[in-house]
Design goal:
The complex is a heterodimer of chains A (182) and B (250).
Chain A lengths: L5 H20 L8 H9 L10 E6 L2 H11 L7 E7 L2 E9 L4 E9 L2 E10 L10 H4 L24 H22 L1
Antiparallel strand pairs in A: 1-2, 2-3, 3-4, 4-5
Chain B lengths: L1 H36 L1 H4 L9 H6 L8 E5 L2 E5 L4 E4 L2 E5 L4 E7 L2 E6 L2 E5 L5 E5 L9 E5 L6 E6 L2 E6 L4 E5 L6 E2 L4 E2 L2 H4 L11 H10 L4 H33 L1
Antiparallel strand pairs in B: 1-2, 1-14, 2-3, 3-4, 5-6, 6-7, 7-8, 9-10, 9-13, 10-11, 11-12
Classes of the chains: A alpha+beta (182), B alpha+beta (250).
Chain lengths: 182, 250
């Protein structure tokens, strides 16, 4: 290639790289599928692991009132599905951040949270809650007597409502686990 | 030195061209960014859009509510994103309403990203938003067997829906007969019973969507990404030109 064409080729390469980077910067709203979450929680791909059973929890008026009294929030639906293997339960919960619902997968074992994953995020702000630096703070947390988590979680500037929704769902998952685990 | 001059000329030409392309959008990003920084003080989240053309651009089709008649009931999704059974507010639903069918004494409403199971009294029995073949395009009943089976339509085809096991991964057999309810227009008698729709589109959201490009969908987001990269490349080409020019003068 003649020397005088090199800057043009360099420019074309740069523009192509910019287009590729821009294309990969567009992210979908689903970050983790339900099945991928359940695989993470229950190691379903490993045959020696106990496979989870899909169960149903009916939310009666009494249950709803008790949940609101205990953690300040209850799901609107009459029934919730969850997965259980031994003392470990997995919940998929949804709550509004500011305008749109956030879908979380929460695994609970022996009255403490094992993991929190953001499965889908639809708000235009606050998506930082999906990163492990935030979700990993929930691991090991329990429900305190006052209905809040037993340790505080560091918030994220600009994502206050999403952080609050995550905490609400984490508290509810712990409370629901206590109901089904006895 | 001649090579440096050629590079300087090339950089200058492209700096000027890319600068002209990016200028309009740079101003738009700057203005919307400054406005968003002061959004609480300006009360943008409490001021609602009343321009019909902008509301329609956001998919507000409240003037002509698409609805599904299932038995004696009408199911529809209002502009605020909530599904109504007749005049009863049931629940929010993710995406446009694409179908509704009766099943096992319940009513099922499918939105693009969610299925709602309702009682005939308008109680939300369950909402399912994970594990679905999204985006959903339709909801139907597969006939020809002992029992009718629920089927979901996506761009890849029809899928059997096992609500007991929450399994939506099995494809419907080719040539299966699937019946669907056709969408209609909500009758005036039901429309009159509707509560006044709350205002839902505030100026903060419009500014955010302008700033991120989401106002034009995924293409808009891609375009704003590109503008961001263009601005970064302009900064770099500006520094390179300054450096080359300075070296020539020394």
């Amino acid at each position: 290639m003649p020397a005088k064409q090199r800057p043009g080729a360099l420019l074309r390469t740069t523009v192509a790289a910019i287009l590729v980077m821009a294309a990969t910067a567009v992210v979908g709203e689903e970050y983790l599928s339900r099945d991928a979450f359940l695989d993470l929680v229950f190691s379903r791909q490993q045959p020696d692991q106990q496979q989870p059973e899909l169960k149903t929890l009916w939310i009666t008026e009494e249950t709803r009132a008790a949940a609101k009294a205990a953690v300040g929030w209850a799901p609107a639906a009459l029934r919730l599905r969850y997965w259980q293997a031994g003392s470990r339960t997995a919940w998929i919960l949804e709550d509004i951040g500011k305008h749109k619902p956030i879908t979380l997968g929460i695994a609970v074992a022996d009255n403490h949270i094992e993991r929190v994953d953001v499965l889908a995020f639809r708000e235009s702000r606050g998506w930082e809650i999906r990163y492990p630096f935030f979700t990993s703070q929930f691991s090991g947390l329990r429900l305190a007597d006052d209905g809040y988590l037993d340790k505080s979680v560091d918030g994220i500037t600009g994502a206050t409502l999403s952080v609050q929704a995550t905490e609400r769902m984490a508290r509810l998952a712990l409370w629901l686990d206590a109901q089904v685990s006895g | 030195m001649r090579r440096g001059a050629r590079l300087l000329g090339l950089l200058w030409r492209w700096h000027r061209r890319l600068g002209l392309v990016a200028a309009v959008f740079a101003v738009l990003l700057a203005i919307t960014g400054i406005v968003l920084n002061h959004s609480p003080a300006l009360g943008l989240d409490r001021r609602f859009v009343s321009w019909d053309w902008l509301l329609q651009a956001y998919g507000d089709d409240s003037a002509d509510l698409p609805a599904f008649q299932v038995g004696d009931h009408w199911l529809y999704r209002a502009a605020d994103g909530r599904v109504y059974l007749d005049a009863v507010d049931v629940a929010p639903c993710n995406g446009a309403l694409v179908g509704a069918v009766p099943a096992d004494g319940l009513l099922l409403a499918a939105c693009a990203g969610e299925i709602l199971l309702l009682s005939t009294a308008g109680e939300l029995v369950e909402s399912i938003s994970t594990g679905l073949p999204e985006p959903l395009l339709g909801l139907g009943l597969l006939s020809g067997q002992a029992n009718e089976q629920l089927a979901l339509q996506s761009a890849q085809g029809w899928w059997l829906a096992d609500l007991e096991q929450m399994d939506f991964s099995q494809r419907a057999a080719g040539g299966a007969f699937i019946s669907q309810f056709a969408p209609g227009v909500l009758p005036e008698s039901v429309r009159r019973q509707l509560p006044a729709q709350p205002q839902w589109l505030n100026w903060e959201r419009v500014m955010l969507d302008l700033h991120s490009g989401r106002i034009a969908g995924r293409v808009g987001v891609l375009w704003v990404d590109l503008v961001g990269l263009l601005l970064a490349s302009l900064a770099m080409s500006g520094v390179a030109m300054w450096w080359l020019h300075r070296r020539r003068r020394l």
